[in-house]
Design a protein that fits this description.
about 375 residues; mainly alpha; 25 helices; MTERF_sf; transcription termination; transcription
Length: about 375
């Protein structure tokens, strides 16, 4: 018994694996001489307490709380509690707070006044509203713990020089929140110079940054390689499709690109056919392999529209198969079978209609004659 009382309470927890066991042990009359502060400090060090704290206080899921408890430790909840209060006072919702702490648990150990508040104040002075800030930071919480003077101020200053207006800066960052954690003059500046050297006009470069800023943070060698590939495909550097194609080549791993090429070939396309379709709609190479397979199966094997239809209208691959394509195809086939539509009707035009126009033109109009359900 004497050795049991001399053992450090934290050892009891480690052996028995339960905070409840620890608490029962601490309630023993023989331990009244142990101070409350000592008890609390020991409890806060236990994994069980950390998990419960993150779940009950910050709203993390059990899995996220377990991961967070393994990455940081604290002796008291004073600082984490103050961080929670700060975030709530700054306008973050409970869901956003849980998300940002799940991504970056060490945030809860930051000093609200010295570390967090200066970042929020600076970004607000740069024109960011509370909804803007909570949206951006909940996606990239490291913004709050990076250096204000060495990182945030130079990043905003660089974007100001490139984009000009606060509105464009904010919309660009909202589309690629992680760019504030990057060395923009180095990573983005070199790519702007390369684009200009290849004849891309400044107005198009600005549009590219606003739409896909993340592409400018890619590996420089990969960016230059993709630029050459896109130019060799015949894309006009002044066209809107040029950067869409460039961004998609840059953003797709080489092995995945090859896999998708082979997948399209399995349905009968040659490499030239794929390039031709890509030039019409560069997004076809960022679709998942599952999406490609479902869409090509339908158009080539099921619908009777054939490979020629996809070659002519590759952007049809981007539409929803179940919510749009399959249903509208079925309705149109019924109308053709009843002689209400010409068999040579342009299915692509029908697929591209808004839902309201499709219902009005092809469902409501022929409902009685073809027995179509509403």
């Amino acid at each position: 018994m004497f050795r049991l009382f001399r053992r450090n309470p934290i050892d009891i927890v480690n052996r028995r694996g339960s905070i409840e066991t620890h608490l029962r042990f601490l309630q023993s009359p023989s331990l009244k001489s142990i101070s409350t502060t000592s008890e609390d400090n020991e409890i806060y060090k236990t994994p069980d307490f950390m998990v419960s704290y993150f779940m009950n206080t910050y709203g993390l899921s059990s899995n996220s709380a377990l991961k967070a408890s393994k990455s940081i430790r604290f002796k008291t909840t004073e600082k984490p509690d103050s961080v929670l209060l700060f975030l709530k006072n700054q306008g973050f919702t409970n869901t956003q707070i849980a998300k940002l702490v799940s991504i970056s648990p060490r945030l809860v150990l930051s000093n609200p006044d010295k570390i967090l508040k200066p970042k929020m104040d600076f970004l607000r002075s740069a024109g960011f509203s509370t909804p803007d800030l909570t949206h951006i930071i909940s996606k990239t919480p490291t913004i709050l713990i990076c250096s204000l003077e060495k990182q945030l101020v130079p990043a905003i200053g660089y974007l100001k020089g490139v984009l000009g207006t606060d509105k464009d800066i904010i919309s660009t960052i909202k589309g690629a929140t992680w760019i504030l954690n990057s060395n923009l003059p180095e990573r983005m500046g070199s790519k702007l110079a390369v684009l200009r050297d290849h004849g891309v006009p400044d107005y198009r470069i600005l549009a590219m940054i606003k739409q896909r800023a993340g592409a400018f943070l890619s590996n420089s060698d990969r960016f230059s390689e993709a630029l050459i590939i896109v130019k060799e495909m015949g894309f006009d550097p002044s066209s809107s499709f040029f950067f869409m194609a460039l961004a998609n080549v840059v953003g797709t791993d080489k092995s995945k690109w090859v896999e998708k090429m082979e997948l399209y070939k399995s349905f009968g396309w040659s490499e030239d056919d794929i390039v031709s379709a890509f030039k019409k709609q560069p997004q076809i190479m960022v679709l998942s392999k599952e999406k490609i397979t479902r869409m090509m199966d339908f158009f080539v094997k099921e619908s009777g529209l054939g490979l020629s239809f996809v070659s002519r209208y590759p952007d049809a691959l981007l539409l929803s198969l179940e919510k749009r394509i399959r249903r509208r195809h079925s309705v149109t086939r019924v109308l053709i079978s009843h002689g209400l539509l010409n068999k040579d009707v342009n299915f692509y035009t029908i697929f591209k209609l808004t839902e309201a126009k499709f219902l009005d033109k092809y469902v409501i109009k022929y409902q009685e004659n073809a027995g179509l359900p509403m």
